Structure formats: C-alpha cells, structure tokens
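[retry 2/3] AHR protein: previous attempt timed out, resubmitting with same input.
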Amino acid sequence: HDCGLYLLISLLQALNGFVLVVTSEGLIFYSSHTIQDYLGFHQVDVIHQSVFELIHTEDQPEFRRNLHWALDPPLTPEGPSPAAGKSQDSAAVVCKPDQLPPENSSFLERSFVCRFRCLLDNSSGFLALNLQGRLKFLHGQNKRSEDGSVLPPQLALFAISTPLQPPSILQIRTKNMIFRTKHKLDFTPLACDAKGKIVLGYSEAELRMCGTGYQFVHAADTLYCAENHVRMMKTGESGLTVFRLLTKDNRWKWVQANARLIYKNGKPEYIVATQRPLVDEEGGEHLRKRPMHLPFTFTTGEALLYQSTHPLPGFPDLFQSKGKPSKFQKPSCSHGGHSQENGIDPQSLLGTVMRQDKAMH
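[retry 2/3] AHR protein: success.
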C-alpha cells in the first residue's frame, strides 16, 4: 500500500497538471495537492468548495455543460449567487444508472478548455487549462432525496487539468518551491511550511521571535507591501505582491506572493500567504514596472496599522502613539534592540528598517 501511494505521488509530481474530481452539483470532491503548483491554491482550500468560484465568469457555462451527461444542463439564472458555492442542486439532474449510457461509453469522455483563477499569474489573474477526462459514477456518497430514499451514485467529472501553454524552464525550476506562511493580522509570523524553511533558512521559532513580519522585508519594498496589506484587510486578498525577503544567511530573496484573510465565525482570524521564489532577473523586472508613489498618507489613518511613533514634521500628534502601548507591539527581535530608541517604536515600519540595517551590518 505504501509503495503504491509513493508511486502515485511520484506520478503526480511528474504530471504537467493536476487531478480534479467535480460532482454534478459543481463541488470539488477531490484535487491533487499539485493544484498549488499551478493555481497557488492549497488542496485543502478548494476541496468541497464550488468549482465555479475558481472559473472565469465567461467560461462557467461551458464547464457546467460538460458536467451534464448529455451536454445539456438545465437552465440556471445568469451569474451564480454567493449561496451557490455550497450547493448547485438546482443545476444538477438526478439520474438513474439505467437512464445513462454505459460508463465506458466514449459519449462520456470530456476535453475542453476553461480559465481558472491563478494566484501565481501576474498577467491576468487567470490560467487557461485543458481539462481531459470523463464522467464516471462517484460511489459512496449516500445522498438522499426529499422523501428520504437513498439516491443512486451520480456521475462526476474525473479530469486531468493541464496548462494550455507549456511551462517555461524557469517555471519548472521554481514551481516545486512554492511555500506558505501563516501570520497574525498585523503580519507577525506564526508558522512556515517545510519548503519555506528551506528557501528562507529560518526555523518557525526564529521567525516568531522577531515580532513583526516587516523585519524580513527589504526597505525599498516595505511601503509597497504595506499598501497591499491594507488592501487585504479591506478586501480579504492582497493581490500579487513581488518583494524581497531577508534570508537567514543575510541574502535578499525575491518572492511573488498572494496573501489572504482566513475567517472564523465571520471574523478575520489570521493571514495565509502563498509565496513563489523568483530569480533576481524576474524580481528586477517587476521592480522596474512598479509604480513609484507613496501608497498611503498618514492623514487617512491607515498608517496607524503600522504604529509609526517617530515624530514627522507637519503631522499632528494625534497620529502618534503618545506613549500608550500598542495592541500590535511584540517583543523585539534579539538582534534589534529591546526598547524604543530615539523615540522610534521598534515595531513600526521605520523601526524594522533600522533593525534590518543593524542585522545586515
């Protein structure tokens, strides 16, 4: 059994794509873990979710059509409602096995193209995938009809999803090093997966010890990252962010990241960031394209999130902490000092830059 599992994992890694199983209602029953290498979503994030939340609006009718055994699904209202993410029963037709063509019939084979949301694609936010497979009965669901009787197994789409455009050598080199980090709402690091520890060189204890996550961000990228942090706090997702992280051996590593809020009981609880390492040439190209402007002003109040306590000429005292402890304050990193120096909060953006400078020298 272990040998078979190892072989399956090896085959998935070698496959240029990922496995996807979608029920007739449009729910993702299974996805291989390699979906993260192509779309940036973790396996556990998509299973039991509506596949239509990942598909481009214009391509949703085509996907829905291919879920139906006769390529003729019942009409549904234009634009699925938010509630449709959990159940698409109105779009699914319950069929008895004897009403369907044989499972090995070529009539149930599927090959079509759809654009999927991609957290790793910086051009359009979508990746065109070719889905090739067939409709097969999904057993063991034990679903019941309104009268309480057990429904027979229904057809589901079993497909291999591969990018239309073959990956470049650069993408092949970096896709297997995608890593995820977990943060508090102020971006304080909480956890890092195994690949992240390899890329950055830190242990989880070392990441947590420094308090603010901005301690690891290059000074020239700090305000750019802060702008996307504010956007994420407002919208739930940062959008693609390319910046430099300080590794344990004091080198700067370019990464392309997408951070999003994770909610519990309707309230944001923590942040998960999916990050892909880039080579210096890629990072430099992104830097040249970056708009050079101050992302926000202190007069909006957004800068209070970062607790800047350094007196700034022309700004009133109400934007300073006035000596009151901040709910975002953390113990200082061991190499950065343990108290405010020259009136600068070590947890502020300015403070992290100064501590970073000490670490580098």
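[retry 2/3] AHR protein: The chain is about 25% helix and 20% strand.
[retry 2/3] clearing retry counter.
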